[in-house]
User: Which sequence fits this backbone?
């Protein structure tokens, strides 16, 4: 599995990010396991976030740009300001969505509040995004077909769909933003958003509570979402996730 984390101050700023910052301070925020970095650009009155994917990185910022534009009519997601491909890589510039990621020290020390916000926030996303008109797919079949080799053959057959929704695609708690008062704000990192069983999101979202807050928070997350545990679908979608994110 690729490891992502908060970025240190020593992360180099690519020339094109420096250029679009137009002299405003650039702060490295997050590094992902594929060499990608997210920077915050301190434009007075409108902070911006620039996601950078170096050439060769498997992350498609084009896919994320399309999905953000589509989802913006229905849910709180970052507003796309700019996107470009350069010889060194691509960047996606968005306006700040207020709030902070659910894994800052503040929220790690208050997991009950964070999990409540993340669970109810995922429910509101699933209830808001329209299935009928969503042009993106994130079904198990599509994901299995994209796994190199025949690794997907190791999995049992796909469980029947519980409820088809527009999934976030990476509903882990770091991609959930929370306001200082504990209210859910919105989601970032929507490059895999698409139609799928809601358990595709729930399996990973609950798992991420364990990675970030420790054991014991899966049930509170599901309670906040408003659903009973489903061990079979959870196991299936976690195994699929593992195949897509080899260590
Ligand atoms: N528009 C925005 N408003 C506020 N915060 C943002 C915005 N865009 C990104 N962030 C912050 O930057 C972090 C990294 O962004 P994002 O999750 O999209 O990057 P990523 O590299 O795709 O992440 P991952 O490691 O999960 O693949 C987020 O967790 C969030 O804290
Ligand atoms: Mg992320």
Assistant:
């Amino acid at each position: 599995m690729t490891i992502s984390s908060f970025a240190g101050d020593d992360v180099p700023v690519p020339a094109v990010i420096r250029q679009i910052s137009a002299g405003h301070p650039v702060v490295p925020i997050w590094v992902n396991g594929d060499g990608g970095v997210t920077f915050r650009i301190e434009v007075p009155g409108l902070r911006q976030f620039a996601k950078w994917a170096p050439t060769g990185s498997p992350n498609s910022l084009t896919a994320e740009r399309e999905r953000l534009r589509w989802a913006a009519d229905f849910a709180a997601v970052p507003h796309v300001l700019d996107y470009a491909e350069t010889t060194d890589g691509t960047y996606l510039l968005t306006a700040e969505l207020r709030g902070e990621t659910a894994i800052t020290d503040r929220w790690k020390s208050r997991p009950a509040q964070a999990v409540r916000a993340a669970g109810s926030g995922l429910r509101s996303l699933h209830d808001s995004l329209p299935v009928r008109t969503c042009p993106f797919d994130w079904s198990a079949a599509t994901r299995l077909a994209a796994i190199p080799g025949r690794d997907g053959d190791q999995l049992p057959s796909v469980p029947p769909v519980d409820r088809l929704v527009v999934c976030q695609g990476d509903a882990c708690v770091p991609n959930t933003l929370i306001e200082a008062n504990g209210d859910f704000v919105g989601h970032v990192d929507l490059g895999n958003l698409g139609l799928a069983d809601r358990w595709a999101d729930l399996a990973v979202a609950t798992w991420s509570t364990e990675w970030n807050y420790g054991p014991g928070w899966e049930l509170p997350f599901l309670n906040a979402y408003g659903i009973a545990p489903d061990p079979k679908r959870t196991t299936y979608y976690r195994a699929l996730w593992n195949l897509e994110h080899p260590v």
